[in-house]
């Protein structure tokens, strides 16, 4: 039985004698399962079943107390059997790193020097609070680097994005192009309307002053010199 699966259960027990008539009785049995420290700690981070060893980067300019990494583990047991503690078992430089016992944080204890190795191997022990205690170990590899700026920044992604000045210049070009197109369109509309109005005015003017083509009749003559026409009448006496 596993306490994490089943904590308690109950059943009935009956007894019958061989008398005549037979007499019987029954009792209810309640069973409580006690917890046992039957699960060892399980490491969530870093995973130990990976094909390649887990590596952390440590800058040379790291101050004392710099957080290198954090080991995360859980325990399937309950109560105090699931309380975990962390301990540093082995290290390439024993005085350079420390592990906080209750949260698994791996931190530096001093500044790095030129005499320190460029690569470090740490072995940590994760232990529960059961009786007897159960434990698991994890191995960390730490590499000392000059810094994170040049080799680890995603430079191609940064280069693909334009700067703020380029964005402002592109916006200005777009505004100028849009204003130019709008101005040309408005000028074309005004010119078209003006031409139509001029044609209509010219047609109206020519229609009011037009004269019929051909010669005037001979009996319509101008006698006043003012441009008016007069008609002469001829009388015939018999």
Automatic annotation (TrEMBL):
<keyword id="KW-0106">Calcium</keyword>
<protein>
    <submittedName>
        <fullName>Protocadherin beta-18</fullName>
    </submittedName>
</protein>
<dbReference type="InterPro" id="IPR020894">
    <property type="entry name" value="Cadherin_CS"/>
</dbReference>
<dbReference type="InterPro" id="IPR002126">
    <property type="entry name" value="Cadherin-like_dom"/>
</dbReference>
<dbReference type="Pfam" id="PF16492">
    <property type="entry name" value="Cadherin_C_2"/>
</dbReference>
<keyword id="KW-0472">Membrane</keyword>
<keyword id="KW-1133">Transmembrane helix</keyword>
<keyword id="KW-0812">Transmembrane</keyword>
<feature type="domain" description="Cadherin">
    <location>
        <begin position="50"/>
        <end position="158"/>
    </location>
</feature>
<dbReference type="InterPro" id="IPR015919">
    <property type="entry name" value="Cadherin-like_sf"/>
</dbReference>
<dbReference type="InterPro" id="IPR050174">
    <property type="entry name" value="Protocadherin/Cadherin-CA"/>
</dbReference>
<keyword id="KW-0325">Glycoprotein</keyword>
<feature type="transmembrane region" description="Helical">
    <location>
        <begin position="170"/>
        <end position="193"/>
    </location>
</feature>
<dbReference type="InterPro" id="IPR032455">
    <property type="entry name" value="Cadherin_C"/>
</dbReference>
<keyword id="KW-0677">Repeat</keyword>
<dbReference type="Pfam" id="PF00028">
    <property type="entry name" value="Cadherin"/>
</dbReference>
<feature type="domain" description="Cadherin">
    <location>
        <begin position="1"/>
        <end position="43"/>
    </location>
</feature>
């Amino acid at each position: 039985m596993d306490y994490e699966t089943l904590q308690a259960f109950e059943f009935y027990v009956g007894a019958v004698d061989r008398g005549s008539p037979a007499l019987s009785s029954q009792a209810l049995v309640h069973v409580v399962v006690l917890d046992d420290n039957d699960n060892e700690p399980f490491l969530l981070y870093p995973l130990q079943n990976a094909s390649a060893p887990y590596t952390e980067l440590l800058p040379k300019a790291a101050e004392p107390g710099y957080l290198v990494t954090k080991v995360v583990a859980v325990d399937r047991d309950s109560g105090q059997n699931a309380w975990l503690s962390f301990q540093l078992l082995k290290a390439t430089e024993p005085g350079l790193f420390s592990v906080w016992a209750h949260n698994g944080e791996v931190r530096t204890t001093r500044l790095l020097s030129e005499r320190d190795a460029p690569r470090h191997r740490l072995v940590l022990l994760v232990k529960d609070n059961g009786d007897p205690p159960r434990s698991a170990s994890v191995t960390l590899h730490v590499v000392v680097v000059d810094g994170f700026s040049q080799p680890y920044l995603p430079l191609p992604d940064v280069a693909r994005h334009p700067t703020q000045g380029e964005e402002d210049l592109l916006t200005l070009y777009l505004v100028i192009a849009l204003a130019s197109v709008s101005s040309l369109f408005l000028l074309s509309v005004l010119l078209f309307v003006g031409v139509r109005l001029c044609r209509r005015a010219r047609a109206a003017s020519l229609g009011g002053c037009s004269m019929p083509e051909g010669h005037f009749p001979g009996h319509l003559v101008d006698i006043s010199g003012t441009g008016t026409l007069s008609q002469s009448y001829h009388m015939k006496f018999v």
